[in-house]
Amino acid sequence: MSYKVISKKLIIIVPIMFFIIAIVRISLNYYENKKSVELFVSEQSKLVDSLYMTHRNYYQDLYLNKIIPLDEKTLAGLPAFSAAKISKEFSEQNRLQITMQTVSDRARNPKNQADEYELKAIEYFKKNSDAKEYISKENKFYQYATPLKIEKKCLKCHGEKSKAPKFISQKYDKAYDYKIGDIRGILSIKVPTFHVDNIINRQFLGSVLYDLGLMIVISLIAFYLVRFFSKLQAKLETELDERTHELKNSLSFLESYKDAIDSNLIVSKTDLNGNITYVNDNFCKITGYSREDVIGENHNILRDKSFSKAMYTKLWSTIVSRETWQGRIRNVKKDGSTYWVDATITPIINAKGDITEYISIRHDITQLIYQKNELKTFANTDSLTKLGNRNALKEEIDYGENIFLILVNIDSFSQINDFYGHELGDAILVEFSSKLLQSCSLYEELRLFRVSGDEFAILTIDMPAHTVVQKAQSIAKFINAHVYEVKDETVELNATISISLEEKDQLLITADMALKIARRDAKDLLVYDKAMNLDKEYENNMLWTKKIKEAIKNDKIVLFFQPIVDNATGEINKYESLIRLIDSDDKVITPYFFLEIAKKAKLYKQLTKIVIQKSFENFRENDFEFSVNISIDDILDKEINAYILEMLNIYNISHRVIFEIVESESIENFDEIQRFIKSVKELGCRVAIDDFGTGYSNFEYLMRLEADFIKIDGSIIKEILDNKNSEIITTVIVDFAKKMGIQVIAEFVESEEIFQKVKELGIEKSQGYYFSEPKPFLI
């Protein structure tokens, strides 16, 4: 039976049920009201009886105690004589018109003679000596009575006639010879039925009306509820149909997704022991194995034995603890060749919470890894001399142990460029680097790099300090002893050399400082000493620390904004927020001069908060997207991390915020960084990687970071017209970004030619002085 049919029947049945219930209630009320009438009459009569008897006894005591003398004059004050008058006035003054009177079957006062109904009551009490009350419904009233029995005090007037007061015995001939306990009469109370019935009927009618009203209200409610639930049922049926349709669509989509995954990703499943239970077609295509080869075999069949055992241990400890593992693995194909995959391995858990199997979804990233290696080569190789460049030197220093540094700077090389031209100058540099490499190649402990135009670096490995100085002296002599013949020109070169024997994190800075001092003082070779220029450095640091503190105090830390242009439309829809310091002379100071000192002075955290708050405030009431630079240290700092989330919640503009991560090549704690990125992305923010392309590490890290934008480093973009390697690196980055679904921004776009070039290479957005220098306001 359908819900609609049930609803129609309920609309009829429910009111009938309530009507029957109402009739039963009315009938019960009727009979209860009838019973309550006698109770009501009895209660009212008892109240009157109590009042009257109290009054009667009080006046009797007044006479008996001779407070009022009993004589012919005062006889009218006795209750037997005063009752009639009192009853008449009482009846007129109460709304029920109740009458009361003491009456007797042997009344001396004719007004107190019992009527036929009262005589019935007297006869009842004479037959029932223990009865205390009498009630009877007559035609027009209820007769209520209580007995008046002879007491000792009554015998004075109602005992022997000879003993009664003379004025009584002479006046009355009857009502004598009573004994104690005899019925003298009754207190008769008559309650008219008309008034009582009116009260009771009104109550009954009210009850009837209440029940009828309640029945009507409940019927209406029932009718409304039936209609409401009928509509609700219809709505639910509609929603069920829609959900069923959606479910069918979802199943269809899932099938499509499965097909897409099977055709693009490598999928396999294993049991709890790591034995393969399923592989898709793409697995077989990539690995060269057939299903028959691998089903039932342990997944170690794909393992590259040279890969880290610790990583596999961590992988298993992760998935057996019901967590998903993600990472890059190098696997082995059937033919023995290797391939790289970006893998996600997830435990499948049943309703009881037990792991039943593991599913692995892998994406073949072999091409990306090769591109990464290729990019590393491009990024770490000087395009002119083919030596390692500054990036390569930094990497060697980062990973090296027991190392020292020699810097070699060709004296006055700019004059050679000016006199002979850059083409010949480049040829001389190639010849010079070849001779210098030849000299260094004699020693396994030496590594040669070109770190800038006319500057070379030699890194020594496991070489004692005194030997390093000797080698530097030998190199100086070698340079001075050679004549360089290039394109029919003969050129002699001299060089200034500096040496740093400091800790590896200070090698470049100290070697560069020693080189500047050597050139200033016209020395051929100088070994860095800690006393060099430290006093001035300390003085400079203290001066800038004071300036930074004053700027913070006086709100002189301000923001400048540089637009980011959409290459397709030419429109500005993004800005980068850039910190500036306004000094006491109102000069605008760039962060190059104060940011590192702020870090040393522990003021950097305050500057970060100021930049975040002012950026959010400046873009609060417009529609522009904007980026804020944050460092890895900012992300790892719990206080800054919490402040960022607090500001995002306060300003509610997360969908327009881009966090631009600088110094990304120094990431070590990936878990913390990924947690931060996930938390801000859940609020709607996006992430950009700054200075991309200056080192291979950030290219590698990008595969693990969920970046939305890549900003190609300005040093690459500036040379993109003249340096083929810069163009190749940019092409690789753009190709990589498109595959990863990441937008690319070119920095340092300073001319129309560069702008046209980056557009030609497929870069989506540009930023640089060609469009606008950073300004304290939005364009």
From TrEMBL:
PROSITE patterns, alphabetized: EAL, GGDEF, PAC, PAS
Name the SMART domains on file. EAL (SM00052), GGDEF (SM00267), PAC (SM00086), PAS (SM00091)
- Which residue ranges does the record assign to the EAL domain? 541-779
Q: Name one Pfam family in it.
A: EAL
Q: Which segments cross the bilayer?
A: 12-31, 204-226
Q: Which CDD domains match?
A: EAL, GGDEF, PAS
Where's the GGDEF domain? Answer: 401-531
Instruction: Identify the InterPro entries for this entry.
Output: Biofilm_reg_signaling, EAL_dom, EAL_sf, GGDEF_dom, Nucleotide_cyclase, PAC, PAS, PAS-assoc_C
Q: Under which name does UniProt file this protein?
A: Diguanylate cyclase/phosphodiesterase (GGDEF & EAL domains) with PAS/PAC sensor(S)
